[in-house]
Protein: cysteine-S-conjugate beta-lyase
Amino acid sequence: MSDWTNIIDAATTNDPLSGAINTPIQLSSTFSQKSFDEFGEYDYARSGNPTRDAGEKAVAQLEHGNYGYLFSTGMAAISSVLFTLSAGDHIVVSKHVYGGTFRVLEDVLPRWGITHDFVDFSDLAAIEKAIKPETKALYIETPSNPVLNITDIRAVVGIAKKHQLFTIADNTFLSPFLQKPLDLGVDIVVHSATKFLAGHSDILAGAVVVNDKKLADQIYFVQNAVGATLSVFDTWLLLRGIKTLGVRMTHSSESAYKIAEHLEAHEKVSNVLYPGLKTHKGYEIHASQAKNGGAVLSFDVGSQENAKKVVESLHIPVFSVSLGAVETIISYPPKMSHAELNVDELAKCGITPGLLRFSVGLEDADDLIADLDSALALI
Ligand SMILES: *Cc1c(COP(=O)(O)O)cnc(C)c1O
Structure:
């Protein structure tokens, strides 16, 4: 089935009771049981409820996985996956990982005896070197935030298989419409569904998708035990958002490519980071594992002062954190997503003082380019 048909098939239901094609919002924390000895499919809504079930089946279907789980935020989803590890376990993580994931790995898990090493995942030899006898998993994020570094998913899966580790991939930046890590051999896909999957800057949500029943059981156990589940209302909004995932990703990624090409030729821009450009150092690998470059790019305007001027002069984009929505969002990583890093740490991650991140929405690409041109003319 084509991805287009798959999206609509996954996000619409045929309610057996009424025939409603939208998933019913079933607000019930508890479910009555058939008899003293015979219990139904649902008992208490943290353990499972029909609305969340429909959303979980949908994200699983989109990622070509067997089992999906929905959480209250992306961080709840990622943390719940990491909570399947035990004291003494070790994990090797891409050094360009999302800031919230960095914080859980640095400041929460070590207190429980779960340790990690950050490695540049474009250096496969460095990944192998970081693997210890107690290593259990490799953690991929591609493209990474905000410098859009590319990891060779198949190669990392190959290393993991050799050492009998499992792989986790954060697929937030592309969504399953553009990249499906499970098809490339990854064991666990995680999402901030807050971004492209929901797509409207309205809800916070997280998703986990796996193929293996044993892994699925472990993740379900943590989901039910810790309890950071997605609410019924938010699941409904997520399903509604997913229905337009294909058209949103297509429009936004086509615009992002156009804008990236334009900025690359612009005299006021010193560097454009976009994996859909042939000049990007990860272009070949990215093209082998994803449909296109996605809807997020970063570009360097030379200095913090210039970045401030550009942000203040733009009319169309919203200046805020987050990404993956219908409106174009511009953010300044050194003061937003990466505010906790000092100048040296920022430089190590390639986050230069003039770097702006641009998540392209559904506006007209030419309008965005004209807006960027007038702002860049002022620096
Ligand atoms: C936003 C984001 C997260 C965290 O998700 P929340 O929904 O904000 O908790 C994780 N990974 C990536 C790549 C993100 O962009």
Observations:
- The chain is about 35% helix and 15% strand.
